[in-house]
Design brief:
Chain A has 79 residues and is an alpha+beta fold. Chain A contains two helices and three strands; from the N terminus they run βαβαβ.
Chain lengths: 79, 79
């Protein structure tokens, strides 16, 4: 089973990397671009086919390692 | 309109960051974890409501700035 974890900064947290992308897009001539935010996408191959167990395991991974819950949100998607 | 761009390394391209996450998960005691890959998730606020135009614009952004087509794949999702 494959789990995809989206980790993104909470709204209100400054995102200099996203800001840099926004500025680069503007200097390349793209118009009509508002806020840009950059997050992480982590794909994890998991053994087993128990979706509930996988969800719980990935949730624990997020809390312990993958995300910083002080400034980041995460979303888990199982395939 | 909001566009979400997922940028991930092509399969076969070494991903040291994903490898490091996999090792860290193992050392935290998580078992049954296979390959881990890390990519980027870029969220862009766009003006206007023409989906076809937005898709084309974001496609161009990916080719020019957001992804390195030699080693990365990208997927665009419009909200």
């Amino acid at each position: 089973m494959k789990a995809r974890v989206h980790v993104s900064l909470k709204s209100g947290v400054l995102d200099p990397q996203g800001k840099a992308i926004g500025n680069a897009l503007a200097s390349l001539g793209f118009t009509g671009v508002g806020e840009v935010r950059q997050g992480k996408l982590i794909e994890i191959e998991l053994e087993g086919s128990d979706r509930a167990a996988a969800q719980a395991k990935v949730e624990k991974m997020c809390q312990e390692l993958l995300a910083n819950p002080v400034i980041e949100n995460y979303a888990i998607e199982l395939e």
